[in-house]
Structures are given as structure tokens and as C-alpha cells.
Amino acid sequence: MVLMVVLALRERMLNQQVETVNEVVRVLGNYYNAVYRIDFNEGRYFKVKAERSDGLAAPESGNYDDLFKGVLEFVEPGAADEFSRTFSLEHVRKLLNEGVTDFGGEFRQRFNKEYKWVNVRLSSDSSMRRGEAILSFREVDAEKQKQLEHMQLIERALRVAKQNTKSRNMFFSAMSHDMRAPLNGMIGMAELAALHKDDPGAVDDYVQKIKSAGKQLLTLINDILEMAKMESGKVEHLQEDFDIFAVVNDVSAMFEAQASV
């Protein structure tokens, strides 16, 4: 009597464990559109779960080649060759014999009239017979779209960074050229001033022009500093009145001095 009670309790516990496992499997199965158990030794499949939303109406069991051809009809034409190579019976047998237990990829599959991204995986472990594996299909279109959008943002940021680098290099190249003019002007006017030591009026004129060239050089240096602020996000906009005729006269004076030396 006691033995019968113990056996009954044990059977009840085992049934509860089986039910718990089945519940977990059902919950996990909700993440997949289709799940098949494949015997690649015999070339057969057994359907564990399959939704009809993908349009594939596969029997409960049958030849793997028939299932493979049926799935292939719904794969985006541009990816059909890659899918054929990846999940062909010969290729899968080879991978399983080499000890590979998990592989797959993402393909666009037709659902009614539109294509969506689907993750297709083949998984196996030591609890299964050699040559057996689970083939699963999971629709990941929303995740893939976010991933593609993220990649596009990265690519756009890289293009902007490259353009900024190019613009910065052009800026500094132009600045290095522009800085030579006031420097050469200052050197030229200093040499002219040295040649006219006995003419205070001429020397004073050259000194004023040297000061003007120095101011222009300082402006260029400030522009470089402003460029550095822009790169760090600290931009300041200043509005100042200036005499454009005086600026033109100062610039032309520098080139006149260089031409006179």
C-alpha cells in the first residue's frame, strides 16, 4: 500500500515537471514563427510549430528537401542562392559532422505581399541524436530596421566627420597661405624702414604699416582660435563696425611693400 502511494506521488511529481517544461517550451515557442525538428541522417523533418502567416503550408512531417524547397519559394530572390548554400541538406550534414551546434543567418522572407526580415537558425546539442537539429524561424523585422537605421546614422556621422576634417584641412591650408602675406609684408616694410633711417617720416609710415600687418596677422590667429571653439561646440558671434576702405588700403600697402623690396 505504501509503495503504491509513493509511486503515485512520484508519478504526480513527474507529471508536474513535464507540464512545467511544456509551459516553458510554449512560452519560448511564442518567439518563433516556425520550429522544425530535423533528422539530417534520414533527410526527414517533424513540425513542432508553424504559423500560417508566412504562407508556407508544410505537412506535419515529410522529406527535408520538400520543406527546404517550400521555404525557398518565400525567400527574397536576391538571397535565394545564399539560403540554398547555407541550409542545403549536404551543407548541414557537413557542419553537424564537424561538431557545429549553432549557425544561421538573417534573410528577407515574404509574408503575404511584403518581405520581412527573418532570423533562421539551426541548433543542436548533446541531448539530441547525432545528425538531428532544430530549425527555427523568427521574424525580426522591427529589430532589423532599428539596426539598419542605427547603421545609417553611423554612416552619416562618418560622412559628416570626414567632411568636417576636409573643411578643417582646407581652412588651415588657406590660413597658412594667408598668414604669409602679412608676415612677408612686415618683413618687407622692416627692411624698407632700415633703408630709410634718415627719413623719420618714411620710417614712421613703415612702422604704421607694420602695425597694420600685425593686426591682420592677429585677426588670422583669432580666426584659427574661433575654429577650435567651433569644433568644441563653443561658438561666439560678434558684430563690429569697420572701415572697409581702410582695410583695403592696409592690405594693398602690404603687397606694395613686398613689391618694393
Automatic annotation (TrEMBL):
<dbReference type="GO" id="GO:0005886">
    <property type="term" value="C:plasma membrane"/>
</dbReference>
<keyword id="KW-0808">Transferase</keyword>
<keyword id="KW-0418">Kinase</keyword>
<dbReference type="GO" id="GO:0000155">
    <property type="term" value="F:phosphorelay sensor kinase activity"/>
</dbReference>
<protein>
    <recommendedName>
        <fullName>histidine kinase</fullName>
        <ecNumber>2.7.13.3</ecNumber>
    </recommendedName>
</protein>
<dbReference type="GO" id="GO:0009927">
    <property type="term" value="F:histidine phosphotransfer kinase activity"/>
</dbReference>
<feature type="domain" description="Signal transduction histidine kinase dimerisation/phosphoacceptor">
    <location>
        <begin position="167"/>
        <end position="233"/>
    </location>
</feature>
<dbReference type="InterPro" id="IPR003661">
    <property type="entry name" value="HisK_dim/P_dom"/>
</dbReference>
<dbReference type="InterPro" id="IPR036097">
    <property type="entry name" value="HisK_dim/P_sf"/>
</dbReference>
<dbReference type="Pfam" id="PF00512">
    <property type="entry name" value="HisKA"/>
</dbReference>
